[in-house]
Write a structure and sequence with these properties.
- The chain is α/β, with parallel strands linked by helices.
- The chain has one domain.
- Helices cover 24% and strands 30% of the residues.
- It contains three helices and ten strands, in the order βββββββαβααββ.
- It has a seven-stranded mixed sheet. Strands 3-4-10 form a three-stranded mixed sheet, with no helix packed on it.
- β7, α1 and β8 form a beta-alpha-beta unit.
């Protein structure tokens, strides 16, 4: 008999393989030093699906790290990445295509890429404005081609709220 895996946070509990329900504030997703925090001031139940190599086991597919679900309203596909934003964009895009047809999907879907801190290196090289422009262009292109919001943010720079992902029309 195998010992059950402990929850990722004290306020979380496993409800199925690869699926946790969390009621803490904030709800965290962390991978290889890159992290994102989702505010949950009312301590509602937030679903956290470990998507990459757990929920979706097909190693040949590009896939994001997590799908974080807000109370039957919205799923946020989350990719935590070091610095390869082009690869992260492709992972989120491919996961979104599959997730739109998944039975566990909530009504709305948005996407989030969180990357490691690069500002000091970029400021030294004087290319920070170009980097910010590239991020803005990628977010607009994603919305136009996939009809879903994509936010690209720096790790640890902010905490996310449900309203951050409801600012635009999501594919429903």
């Amino acid at each position: 008999m195998t010992k059950p895996k402990p929850p990722s946070q004290p306020e979380c509990r496993w409800i199925a393989d690869c699926v946790e329900m969390c009621a803490g504030d904030p709800v965290a997703v962390i991978e290889n030093g890159v992290e994102a925090y989702f505010d949950n001031p009312r301590q509602s139940t937030i679903r956290k699906i470990y998507y990459d190599d757990c929920y979706c086991k097909d190693r040949a597919l590009l896939k994001a790290d997590y799908v974080v679900g807000f109370a039957e309203v919205l799923d946020v596909i989350v990719e935590l990445k070091g610095s390869d934003l082009d690869h992260a964009y492709a992972q989120v895009e491919h996961t979104l295509e599959r997730w739109k047809t998944d039975a566990k999907r909530y009504r709305g879907v948005a996407c989030l890429i969180v990357h490691t801190r690069r500002e000091a290196t970029l400021r030294k090289a004087r290319i920070l404005p170009r980097w910010q422009s590239r991020i803005g262009n990628a977010e607009r292109r994603f919305l136009r081609t996939n009809k879903a919001l994509l936010l690209i943010r720096e790790s640890g720079a902010q905490r996310f709220k449900l309203n951050d992902f409801l600012r635009t029309n999501n594919d429903r």
